[in-house]
Specification:
- The radius of gyration is 20 Å and the shape is globular.
- Strands 4, 5, 8, 11, 12 and 13 form a six-stranded antiparallel β-sheet that branches. It has a two-stranded antiparallel ribbon with strand order 1-2. Strands 3-6 form a two-stranded antiparallel ribbon.
- Helices cover about 30% and strands about 20% of the residues.
């Protein structure tokens, strides 16, 4: 992160701003007046973080030309995706020179503690349409850092929807503000409701999500199959008396990948669970409660620059990532049995 601070026009000491220090020492001040929407090749951007006017409030990312996309009206989405990002892949991608979240300045890095943690955490709750797209709906104001800090669930937000490249007190103006302004404003008119609903949806599937995280932890530095991970998801959901919705497993098509048996595999990056409106909930209105949504089968994911549907065999970031390996894959049934016993 030091490189990011040097690259920015200024950086405000966290101690000077709030009277105490954070794990990284500073919150980067990006958001210059002449900023653009970011580098489409690397995903790094200056349209993020704290503004350069006072260094205390979040950057208005929707003020940049091209950020407002009104191919659809606000609140008329067809389904929403709850995307959970695999922290080791996110952190390694930053070191490789790309940001799959599109929310950090060039040179950003995760602290060592975050790099070592194997977990899925919320990335965002994204309204989606079958045709066209929308972003920065109704051009919402950026998050107010003092208001967010006063939310009763602020500490839980820092654990479950945090930014692994930023200290908790800094992350409001990076990932959280990006998700609210770009996506949340198309879902609801309340930032607080947006984050509360996202965490509630994640909690509804927490046992299956934790089982997937545990399975990925056992395969760090090796390979895994889509069939295996899907079996673990399905078996855990069924134990919880849930009909397992079809999910999307997303890999990172950028970076060097990992060689396994002469083949270069992409790394697992994200897990996506999809939700639709509950019966009786109409289009065109802002939503405020998880009770207004029901899980649905995800439409198949599409290939994009920073994300792609995982192929049948993919890699999991770990100590031996990037090295050639020959992996003996355990059966899906054995893995499912092992990890469903812990929930």
């Amino acid at each position: 992160l030091a490189a990011a601070v040097v690259a920015c026009s200024s950086a405000t000491s966290f101690h000077d701003r709030y009277g105490k220090s954070d794990a990284l020492g500073v919150c980067p001040v990006t958001c210059p007046p002449n900023r653009n929407h970011g580098d489409s090749h690397t995903g790094f951007t200056e349209n993020t973080g704290f503004n350069t006017t006072d260094g205390k409030q979040c950057c208005d990312i929707c003020a940049v030309t091209g950020q407002v996309i009104d191919g659809n009206s606000a609140y008329d989405w067809d389904y929403v995706i709850l995307d959970s990002i695999f922290v080791p892949r996110f952190c390694q991608a930053l070191q490789e020179g790309h940001d799959v979240t599109l929310t950090h300045p060039s040179g950003s890095r995760c602290p060592l503690k975050e790099q070592q943690e194997t977990r899925l955490q919320i990335h965002g709750l994204w309204p989606n349409w079958f045709n066209k797209y929308a972003a920065c709906c109704l051009q919402p104001n950026p998050l107010d850092t003092a208001m967010v800090k006063d939310w009763s669930f602020f500490q839980a937000l820092g654990r479950r929807w945090s930014d692994a490249a930023m200290a908790a007190e800094c992350s409001t103006c990076f990932n959280l503000n990006h998700e609210w302004q770009k996506h949340g404003s198309c879902f609801t008119d309340s930032a607080k409701a947006y984050f509360m609903v996202g965490m509630a949806l994640q909690h509804a599937m927490v046992h299956a999500t934790d089982a997937v995280s545990a399975a990925l932890d056992q395969r760090r530095g090796a390979s895994m199959t889509v069939v295996e991970l899907m079996a673990i998801w399905n078996a855990t959901a069924q134990i919880q008396s849930q009909r397992p919705p079809a999910i999307n497993l997303i890999c990172d098509p950028q970076g060097p990948g990992m060689k396994v048996g002469g083949e270069v595999l992409h790394f697992f990056s994200e897990l996506q669970v999809c939700w639709g409106r509950a019966p009786g909930v109409k289009k065109g209105i802002p939503l405020y409660s998880p009770d207004q949504l029901v899980p649905i089968d995800c439409p198949p994911a599409k290939q994009r620059h920073f994300t792609a549907p995982c192929p049948a065999l993919f890699a999991v970031d770990g100590d031996s990532a990037g090295q050639s390996a020959v992996v003996n894959e355990p059966t899906a049934a054995r893995l499912a049995s092992r990890w469903t016993q812990v929930v």
